[in-house]
Amino acid sequence: MTTMTFRRSADAPVAVRVSKTAAARGEGREPLRHLAPNWFAVVMGTGIIANAAATLPVRFPGLRGVATGVWGLASVILIVLVGAWVMHWRRYPEEARGHGMHPVMMQFYGALPMALLTVGAGTLMLGKDVIGLTAALTVDWVLWSVGTVIGLLTAAGIPYRMITRHNFDPDSAFGGWLMPVVPPMVSAALGALLVPYTPAGQARLTMFVACLAMFGLSLIAAFVTTTLIWSRLLHHGLPPVGMVATVWLVLGPLGQGVTAAGSLANVAPTVLNKSEAAGMQVFSLLFGIPTWGFAMLWLALAVAVTWHARESMPFNLTWWGFTFPVGCCVTGSTALFQHTGADLFAITAVALYALLVAAWAVVAARTVHGVIRGNLLRPVHQK
Questions:
Q1: pLDDT grade, residue 17 (50/70/90)?
Q2: Which positions, given as ranges, span the membrane (predicted)?
Q3: What pLDDT is attached to residue 288?
Q4: What pTM did the predictor assign?
């Protein structure tokens, strides 16, 4: 079976009814009307280019300068999208609420907190060279805090809505189901950067423990969801061609989980006693290396199924799934290299970063082209 089906309750068809009504009024020409939360994946995919470069094991001439420029670009895109989304909610509240009721589109509410977290971390790692450490810390604290709160809400709220508002068939699981539950993992990985800047004592300990708890929250939810996705692929085949790119999303929690474990181990000595900090170092390897191995297996599968479906895959915003998840594998490989010194991880990090940049160049160019033509700013039925 190559189609994905789901049964929806009486509340769910709102988005469909709104879309048909808009078409009847000729409102497809109003781009803000159809601005969905999946657009924040553009910020995620762009920001990870900068963040991964900042931690890459190999330093290339001019890399940090280029990475800082990409961070600036991601920041501008984030500001524009947040402003546009606020206007979207004010002008078209019915359509906006429809996105939250749609069984597929509501999954991408997880993109907003991850976009905030990505830009916030980039500000601390790269933006401090431009605006200074104090301002960079302030920006990162604000974006991390807001992104974490929204991410926790999506991690609990979207599954709750899936359980209470919809009835999904066995072939409904797809990579997008990971989007709402991954933000706490991103908060854990990037929150580790803020641990040393948190006041010593209970405040720092609370920050560390909160990050570790969010690591577990997202890890277990992601493993359960990945099992459903694996089962769906084996029993029902690939998702519709327009959603094949979502297979790559599984790499996100895997790579980010390895990154989080390594980052928390790095800052553990500033919070825990010597033996406990050493235990975190051991855990980061015992968890990180096997998880990295599974990520490489999934990467191979993702490449294979994408190649299999390449001639029939239409371009849409799910193609940004080729970027952020790969970037997470870059940062995860880098974290393992820092903790083991094994060249295997350094070589993998550089190779995956090259793949990430190539994928970003293609997807970004296609996105700009789609915006100029207006294809990406129309309701689905008009494409």
A1: very low
A2: 39-60, 66-87, 108-126, 141-162, 174-195, 207-229, 241-262, 282-305, 317-338, 344-363
A3: 97
A4: 0.90
pLDDT, tens digit, for every residue of 192-235?
A: 999 999 999 999 999 999 999 999 999 999 999 999 999 999 99
377: tokens are 């700013």
Amino acid at 360: W
Whether residue 264 contacts residue 211, with contact meaning beta carbons closer than 8 Å, is answered with yes
> Phi and psi (nearest 5°) for 175?
-55, -25
Which tens digit of pLDDT belongs to each residue from 189-204?
A: 999 999 999 999 999 9
- All domains in the chain, ordered by first residue: 34-382 (1.50.10.150)
| Tokens 């039925």 belong to residue | 381
Structure token digits, residue 157? 């709220």
**Which residues, listed in sequence order, are joined to residue 168 by a DSSP beta bridge?**
6
- Tokens encoding 79: 């500001």
- pLDDT, tens digit (0-9, with 9 covering 90-100), for 47-77: 999 999 999 998 889 999 999 999 999 999 9
Is residue 284 within 8 Å of 265, Cβ to Cβ? Answer: yes
Per-residue tokens: 369: 């082209």
